[in-house]
Design a protein that fits this description.
Blueprint: H1 61-65, E1 68-69, E2 77-78, H2 94-102, H3 104-116, H4 119-135, H5 150-164, H6 170-184, H7 194-209, H8 213-230, H9 242-261, H10 268-283, E3 313-316, E4 320-324, E5 334-338, E6 354-358, E7 361-364, H11 376-382, E8 390-392, E9 404-410, E10 414-421, E11 428-435, E12 440-446, E13 453-458, E14 464-469, E15 472-477, E16 480-487, E17 499-508, E18 511-519, E19 525-532, E20 538-542, E21 545-550, E22 553-558
Helix pairs in contact: 2-5, 3-4, 3-5, 5-6, 5-7, 6-7, 7-8, 7-9, 8-10, 9-10
């Protein structure tokens, strides 16, 4: 057992409320940092070790002490209690390898030492850190590419700072200085990205520990400039996934506390940008408390601390419509619609896509987020076919195409939105009408003459198809019945020929379930009605209008929805 000089435990570093998000690295970020001719000189300054709650995941410290770790929802792995093989990747998982090198699990041992005062936890934490430092020289031959990738560096820095509060050794101080140099390097900085925020938090903590004023000031300047790029005036995070809005909001909370504890002034704009995220996240939370899984966000996430907003329907210019019948009612109806700039960062090719939640249940869902592993399934979850969208038959999809919100009409009982793009080389138009009270969603998809489309509808795995006939698909799950009806907008007559295919939907990180997917027949235009709560809705067309008798009463609207 290695022995180190350490101080008495200080105030406990509380475990974070934030779920472990280290599996969010992207392959393009695996940059190898050039070998240094020599290690940096020891800095002369000495400041406090600023350790802020929210830095480390909750782990079973006793198991880590015995060399057993579990990352990214994967089965535990025995690393042993001696030297560690830092090139280990037993699950062939990018997320697992990133977690290994981030050393936040080592930081959890420091947390346990501060809580219980048991020196065995601190000794093991120091041994792990020293083994990592000696086994992963920057630019060294055979070193894992994850060792010095920018995100593991950012996440590892605060763990080393917290260890340094109790362990006073030259190797740790040199490593902190080396981490600071890497974090301050503008060529490796992810401006406007959640990784960049983590880099700034780490640089600020290291700068304070080493009394390096320039690093501290740089970190705060970069945080503010990045927040200006990342969070727009309406509070939308440009990473195109509400789940990352939750992450960045909480990491900004860590950043603000770190700034204050370093004795610096919190920039008002930085605090304001963090507050503005709250509206975006709150509107993305379904009535059952789960975040709608748009983009790279696993299903089942339940964010806390985002209060109800004044309005029940909100259009965000960056590409989201969120609507609900009421706040603080688990049985309320809810929907989302996607448009806006082309796919970027954690977004999917989900433009024109909708989700629908009614009667306390998910109705229309998307393939969601499964993992960041480079698999055919991951690639499929990003594609249009994994979402509730119209695809143009026989045409190639053009990735990264922007979609426009052409018009919108919002009243308390009914909302209508018209969107358009040319993602398949022709004008693709979708009009979405949602009735609240008498729950119903109507969607009109259109392409020009000479082209044909097929609309795709993914139903929640809890719903199974019980009948397909006459342009109707009836699904059931427990005591809930849902009916999909498709009509020809030109005539108002039923449009038959639906196909039902089983599809694997991601129900969480590394979890899937079989779902019923309905494909419309190919046509120039298709009007789709989704009626929750009944397996036999009466639908009548007369004089260019449709009347649907729902469980909540009749709903009438023109076949063109918005005209």
């Amino acid at each position: 057992m290695f022995k180190y000089t350490f101080t008495a435990p200080g105030p406990a570093v509380h475990r974070p409320a934030v779920p472990d998000l280290l599996g969010r690295a992207r392959a393009a970020l695996l940059r190898r940092i050039p070998r240094r001719a020599s290690a940096p000189d020891l800095p002369a300054g000495d400041g406090p070790a600023v350790c802020v709650a929210g830095g480390f995941p909750a782990v079973r410290a006793a198991e880590v002490l015995r060399g057993r770790v579990a990352f990214a929802g994967l089965p535990p792995v025995d690393l042993g209690t001696g030297k560690i093989d830092w090139r280990l990747d037993p699950h062939r998982s990018r997320s697992w390898a990133l977690n290994l090198h981030a050393l936040r699990w080592m930081g959890s041992l420091v947390v346990e030492y501060e809580r219980a005062g048991d020196g065995e936890f601190l000794d093991r934490a120091a041994a792990i850190a020293e083994d990592w430092v000696r086994g992963n020289p920057r630019g060294g031959t055979g070193v894992s590419p994850w060792a010095w990738a920018e995100h593991p560096v950012a996440l590892r820095g605060p763990a080393l700072v917290c260890l340094s509060a109790h362990v006073r050794t030259a190797w740790l101080r040199r490593s902190l200085a080396e981490h600071g140099e890497v974090l301050a390097d503008p060529a490796l900085y992810r401006q406007g990205h959640n990784h960049g925020l983590d880099q700034d938090i780490a640089l600020l903590a290291i700068g304070r520990r080493l009394d390096h004023r320039a690093w501290q000031e740089l970190a705060v300047r970069r945080m503010t400039a990045s927040a200006r790029l990342a969070v727009d005036a309406q509070g939308v995070l440009h990473e195109q996934a509400p789940r990352y809005g939750v992450y960045v909001h909480r990491r900004l909370g860590v950043a603000l506390e770190t700034i204050e504890r370093c004795g610096l002034a919190v920039p008002p704009e930085l605090a304001a940008r963090r507050r503005s995220l709250e509206s975006y996240v709150a509107h993305a939370v379904q009535p059952d408390g789960r975040l709608v899984p748009i983009g790279d966000g696993p299903a089942g996430v339940r964010p806390e601390g985002f209060p109800a907003q004044p309005d029940t329907v909100r259009v965000f210019d960056a590409g989201y419509v969120f609507g609900r019948t009421a706040w603080d009612d688990p049985g309320a109806a809810y929907y989302s619609i996607r448009f806006g700039p082309g796919r970027a960062l954690h977004g999917h090719e989900d433009h024109l896509g909708v989700t629908y939640h009614a009667r306390g249940r998910d109705i229309l869902v998307e393939a969601g987020f499964h993992s960041y592993e480079r698999t055919p399934y991951r690639r499929w979850t990003l594609s249009p076919e994994a979402h509730n969208v119209p695809v143009v038959a026989g045409a190639a999809f053009r990735e990264g195409t922007a979609t426009r919100l052409v018009s919108s009409s919002v009243t308390p009982s009914r909302q209508c939105f018209r969107l358009a793009d040319d993602a398949y080389g022709v004008r693709r138009t979708r009009t979405v009408l949602v009735s609240h009270g008498a729950d119903l969603m109507a969607v009109l998809d259109e392409v020009p003459a000479g082209s044909a489309l097929r609309s795709i509808w993914h139903f929640d795995p809890s719903l199974a198809v019980v009948s397909v006939r006459g342009g109707r698909v009836v699904l059931a799950g427990g005591d809930l019945r849902v009916t999909l009806v498709q009509l020809s907008p030109a005539s108002g007559l039923p449009l038959g020929g639906q196909e039902v295919e089983p599809q694997e939907i991601a129900t969480g990180h590394l979890r899937t379930a079989r779902s019923a997917t309905v494909l419309s027949p190919a046509a120039g235009s298709v009007l789709t009605l989704v009626v929750p709560g009944t397996g036999d809705p009466q639908v009548a067309c007369s004089g260019g209008r449709v009347t649907v008798r729902t469980c909540g009463g009749p709903v009438s609207f023109p076949l063109s929805l918005d005209r």
